[in-house]
Amino acid sequence: MSDSALAIKAVDYEQPDNSPTGGAVCATKHAWARVPVEPGPAERAALKDKIRRLLKEKNAVMVSHYYVHPDLQDLAEETGGIVSDSLEMARFGRDHAATTLVVSGVRFMGETSKILSPEKRVLMPDLDATCSLDLGCPVDEFSAFCDAHPDRTVVVYANTSAAVKARSDWLVTSSCALDIVKALKDQGQKILWAPDRHLGGYIQRETGADMVMWGGSCIVHDEFKAFELEELMHEHPGAKLLVHPESPAAVVALADAVGSTSGILNAAREMDAKTFIVATDNGMMHKLRTLNPGKTFLEAPTAGNSATCKSCAHCPWMAMNGLADVARVLETGANEVHVDPALGLRARVPIDRMLAFTAALKQGPVPGSLVAHIGAA
Ligand code: SF4
């Protein structure tokens, strides 16, 4: 795609100084996102047809996140792929028979797919699509943080590089973090948590676990504002508030339900309300509205008196995924994700522990002996 068909966005994110000698002060750093211009109707239809054909020809399947463009969500499902949260994306890609995975999301999702499926070709629409949590947790500083706390079990969120995963004991996503940290706490373990401070704070409050935390944040969820949210709730007194736990504590405290993307979808389906206010990336609105046609979904406010105007409730890096690039990478094999095999093997250990734990959890409460067994594997 030519540069004229792209919009370049400057993005600020925070990198905390959590090193043993640091003062735990966040430094604002800069990144960018390159967002494709929306194709017109004829081009859009032609691109979809081309992708459908190429998926068959190349024995490929689409794996899309809830936050990417609705076209990439619908096309994934229509062609036998999946739209889901990062945990299900990882599972689905590993278990699917296709030899090529086209991962629409951000870089760590493609890396996780490659780590779990090293024999498969993993392609992404744009390899520069990243995440403020990943950017804000460089492996050298993170390793020093771990070295300063050798008595702690290292639990990292999926939104991290392969190198940070390789330095950890357990991986979690927002859909299983609470259960895994609670199980580790029940084993008497103290936790080193990274990188999202809001999700970590939520888990600490819910479980009472002894946790030291990296200070990263998601530039989208960090922007939800409790004061403006309360005003919107007053305007819609019957509405239920659904909040992703990457949001600040003051926003989480107002929620009727707190959950991952899949947790928010479940709550919207099950809760007895006609109107919902949703505090997560607005890419979720497509699935929420499609699955609940009789219900109204309002975006939680990110602006207002205390706004810094960094976000508009949509991730600039998720927005880098577009139809034209999906077609291009399928056709040319460009944008293949590579992970150093030795690093991938080490990074796979905490991922496999998470997958083993969540598989066991589906059968019921996970006994401590099994948690210990999984943690030792
Ligand atoms: S929405 Fe936030 S957590 Fe998700 S990829 Fe974007 S910056 Fe990262």
From TrEMBL:
Its EC number is 2.5.1.72. It holds the Pfam family NadA. The keyword 4Fe-4S applies. Gene3D superfamilies: NadA-like. Its cofactor is [4Fe-4S] cluster. Signal peptide: none annotated. One of its GO terms (cellular component) is cytosol. GO terms for molecular function: 4 iron, 4 sulfur cluster binding; metal ion binding; quinolinate synthetase A activity. Keywords: 4Fe-4S, Cytoplasm, Iron, Iron-sulfur, Metal-binding, Pyridine nucleotide biosynthesis, Transferase. It catalyses: iminosuccinate + dihydroxyacetone phosphate = quinolinate + phosphate + 2 H2O + H(+). This is Quinolinate synthase. The keyword Lipid metabolism does not apply. It is found in: Cytoplasm. Pathway: Cofactor biosynthesis; NAD(+) biosynthesis; quinolinate from iminoaspartate: step 1/1. GO terms for biological process: 'de novo' NAD+ biosynthetic process from L-aspartate. Catalyzes the condensation of iminoaspartate with dihydroxyacetone phosphate to form quinolinate.
